[in-house]
Amino acid sequence: MAETIENLTVNKGLCVSCGICVGVCPVACISFHKDKGQYLPQIDNDKCVHCGGCADVCPSSIKGEDYEKYAQLNGCEWREETVLYGADIGCFSTYCKDLEIREKAVSGGIVTLLVLRLLAEGLYDSAFLVGENRYEGQVESGRYTAGMLLDGTQKSRYVPVSHAETIRYMKKHPEEKLIITGTSCAVHGILRVIDRLQLERSNYLLLGLFCDRCERDSIVDYFKGRRPKKRVTGFYFRTKEQAGWPGNVKIEYEDGSAEFFRLRKE
Ligand SMILES: Cc1cc2nc3c(=O)[nH]c(=O)nc-3n(C[C@H](O)[C@H](O)[C@H](O)COP(=O)(O)OP(=O)(O)OC[C@H]3O[C@@H](n4cnc5c(N)ncnc54)[C@H](O)[C@@H]3O)c2cc1C
Questions:
Q1: Which residue range is the domain that position 249 belongs to?
Q2: Is 193 found in the same domain as 80?
Q3: Residue 72 pLDDT more than 90?
Q4: Cα of 181 to ligand 1 centre, how many Å?
Q5: With CB atoms 3.0 to 4.6 Å apart as the test, which of 15, 32, 52, 74 could cross-link to 39 if both were Cys?
Q6: What is the pLDDT of residues 32-53, one digit of tens each?
Q7: How far is Cα 51 from Cα 26, in angstroms, rounded to an integer?
Q8: What is the pLDDT of residues 103-149, one digit of tens each?
């Protein structure tokens, strides 16, 4: 009987809530529940067929020997000295020259620019990004196609994002060319899915977000809880609209008012 993620990673506190196990499960027996401020996967043991898929794709079950394999999958040569940031083809420092895009982004807006251009030019069929700014449940990535506005997708979400829907879509449409944004752990899980399901690596542009760490979902509950009588319609970890980079936390309320919390002294 193959191992599941329960003992391998979740019970050891290693789960990053990426939802990749949920998306890959062939019998849909994994669901999320919120536990101590984090969404964690739970297996319905009556339905589980012990195929080992969840453990195989979970980025937290990484083994040392994987590094070389995934470098090859990415078309890179594995070198031991790159263990901390992964095998690279090249390194560039860029920002988007379109001011409207750049001002809405937390960083340089290059991800949004790339997605817009690649979809518009028909080089990719769709993109999986994050449009969530309300945080009423688990944050999930969603599908965007050419011509759709990406205004609501910009900015970083510093909480775990579920890629379950992305993986389901990859399984259902293996021939489609997709752009997927994700933190490094999610990207690693997606590479494992490509490998396990024998998908065509060149069909996927994986835009890995430089990531130091993220918060638990309870950070948003904390901010929302400060005004329990006011319904939150928008929450932004960092917006540059008040004081430029690195930006302030912004909360929008149903009555049209907004509050900012400073991240730095001006
Ligand atoms: C959890 C987290 C930690 C980070 N830590 C660092 C850091 O330590 N140092 C640093 O320099 N930068 C950090 N970043 C910023 C990150 O590197 C930038 O998002 C990236 O550089 C893209 O900037 P941009 O202006 O081009 O993004 P944008 O043009 O605004 O595009 C960002 C895209 O990523 C998507 N996205 C946002 N959050 C997530 C998410 N959590 N999972 C999947 N997709 C998402 C958005 O929907 C959007 O499509 C972090 C981001 C995240 C999400």
A1: 225-261
A2: yes
A3: no
A4: 8
A5: 32
A6: 999 989 999 999 999 999 999 9
A7: 9
A8: 999 899 999 999 999 999 999 999 999 998 999 999 999 999 999 99
Number of the ligand 1 atom closest to the C-alpha atom of 207? 34
The minimum-distance atom of ligand 1 relative to the CA of 113 is: 29
Is there a single domain that holds both residue 40 and residue 71? no
| Residue 210 per-residue DSSP state | P
- State in Å: Cα 207 to ligand 1 middle: 10
How crowded is residue 35: how many other Cβ atoms within 10 Å of its Cβ?
11
154 lines ligand 1 (CB under 6 A): yes
Distance 209 CA to ligand 1 centre (A): 5
CATH number at residue 34: 3.30.70.20
Q: Are residues 30 and 100 in the same domain?
A: no
- Note whether residue 138 is domain-resident: yes
The closest of 253, 256, 201 to 232, measured between CA atoms, is 253
Residue 205 and residue 230 in one domain:
no
Q: How many domains does the chain have?
A: 3
Domain co-membership, 118 together with 42: no
